[in-house]
Amino acid sequence: MKLISQLAREANIPIGTIRFYEKSGLISGMTKPGITSNNYVYYDDEVTEKLRFIKMAKAVGFTLAEIKQVIDAWYQKELTKASKMEVLNLKLEQIDTKIGELKAMKKQIARCKHNIENGLSR
After folding, report:
1. How far, in Å, CA of 75 to CA of 46, rounded?
2. Is 10 a member of any domain?
3. pTM of the predicted model as reported, rounded to 2 decimal places
4. Are 57 and 92 within one domain?
């Protein structure tokens, strides 16, 4: 069990971000039973794993809303291998769509640039 400062250091995530994730329902800590003299919240190793999962998922383009939809089921082993693959395949399709949109935008910008360089703009 670790305090938020230890968790932040271990996961390399700012304390404010951890508190935000907790308020958003992505992670949760616990108080020690029988201790009423402080409001300390403690976090176990599963929270550390979830934070690493969140960090990785955000890095590859998942939104927090998407992460929230799957994180508990993912860690409680409720998602089958096929379900996990479906989630990842859907994200790959979304990334491919975004790449297509970005390529179209790049082409349009290049066309505008060409027109400006050649005096064809109005």
Report:
1. 8
2. yes
3. 0.67
4. no
For residue 42 the two structure tokens come to 């403690």
| Arithmetic mean of pLDDT, 38-62 | 89
Q: How many CB atoms lie within 10 A of CB 100?
A: 10
56 vs 121, residue with greater confidence: 56
In a domain, 13, yes or no: yes
In this structure, the answer to whether residues 54 and 1 fall within a common structural domain is yes
Radius of gyration in angstroms for the set of CA atoms belonging to the chain, rounded to a whole number: 22
7 and 48 Cβ atoms separated by less than 8 Å: yes
Contact 29, 46 (CB under 8 A): no
Q: What is the pLDDT of residues 52-80, one digit of tens each?
A: 999 988 988 888 988 888 887 777 777 78
Same domain, 5 and 42: yes
